[in-house]
Design a protein that fits this description.
The protein is mainly α. The chain is built from three helices and no strands. The protein has a domain of 35 residues.
Length: 71
């Protein structure tokens, strides 16, 4: 990659100023897909944890003991 000696010209004469010029749309699409996949994965994991916690509380008299007043 060449070093810029002078900025007194048109930007097209200087050339690309950063790597992967032209692949921005592809990177945005990939980032969007990964973001959506992460959210779906997170929803699934949290739903499973919620169901496990609810099942644990439903078993036996745990819920009854938690809602009874002492005293």
């Amino acid at each position: 990659m060449a070093t810029v000696q002078s900025w007194s010209g048109t930007i097209t004469d200087i050339g690309p100023l950063y790597p992967f010029v032209g692949s921005e749309l592809f990177m945005v699409v990939v980032a969007g897909v990964l973001w959506l996949a992460w959210h779906l994965f997170q929803l699934k994991v949290e739903a499973n944890e919620y169901e496990e916690e609810a099942a644990r509380l439903r078993d036996g008299d745990t819920l009854k003991r938690a809602t009874e007043r002492e005293g």
